[in-house]
Design brief:
With 198 residues, the protein is an alpha/beta fold. The protein is built from eight helices and seven strands; from the N terminus they run H-H-H-E-E-H-E-H-E-H-E-H-E-H-E. The structure holds zinc ion.
Length: 198
Amino acid sequence: MEYYSHQISRLIEELSRLPGIGAKSAQRLAFHLINMPKEQVEHLAQTMVDARNNVRYCAQCCTLTDQELCPICKNSERDQKTIMVVETPRDLAAYEKTGKYNGVYHVLHGAISPMLGIGPGDIRLKELMERLQGDVNEVIIATNSSLEGETTAMYISKLIKPAGIKVSRIASGVPVGGDLEYIDEVTLLRALEGRTEL
Ligand code: ZN
């Protein structure tokens, strides 16, 4: 990339480190940024820095938020005794988009994967178990239907069942290996309604 000046090359290089951005997209974005009004670029950069500095894990459900508790955990209209366990904040967003789920969530930030060396201690399971010391009616396991998601679901249900809390798993209307965030709302709702007790 020596045909570009140093700063342009550096910008392209930094952008190409982002997920899903190949060399071509990075070049396109770099030149787009260079042509944008200065204030707009400064605003974008500041927004990125602010988000990175202020976003943290919700003290209750571990989703990403800029406050101590996320808006869902804070909402007294939500059924705080029904907890849906998901892998990522994007999965949470997918269920929120349906507008039909009134419980709360627990975000694991990953799934157990012996192949990748990700064990139960590497995801937010301890936090979930601590929550279950409180008043909980049902835990709905909505991890993906990938091998990792199923492994995680099995592990969690074995962990929770002795506590006498109802544990259910969303129906497998969700295609195998399918990421929750790409599945349409109707399918998600059907999977939720058709959940089976473990
Ligand atoms: Zn929360």
